[in-house]
Structure prediction request, 145 residues.
Amino acid sequence: HVSAELEQNVEETEKDVLRLTNENNSADLEIQELTAKLDKVTAERDDAAAKLIEAHTSLLNTSNEKVAMNDQVAELKKMESEYANSIAKMEATIQERDDEIMTLNKSIESSSAKIQSTEKALSELSAEKEELTKKIELIDVQLYS
Prediction:
């Protein structure tokens, strides 16, 4: 009964490890996507900044255009910051999942050791039972002979 319970615990733990691994892989893919988006936003921001310098140089008297470009750069910086925050959160989540996987792996190892110990004890008890059965049969033969 204990062995079956331990095996069930091991199976559940292995399922949890697989689930967490899948979630971890999913988070890794999302980080890659966010990183690509961040690179794109950074390139757009750099492009916008170059356009802003060009507009300022060539159209010094058109402050409305300058304000619009500054707003665009600010929005791109805001987006960059949001993506950076998202990546930081994902990295923290991955670390948490890695920690959970390590804990589950330790639990599997512990459960496996308990199962082995239980199987060894069961084997020893079976051997003792066989030995006692043989002794009883020998005594029966001696008593009835």
Summary: Residues 121 and 127 are 10 Å apart (CA to CA). The helical segments are 2-58, 63-144.
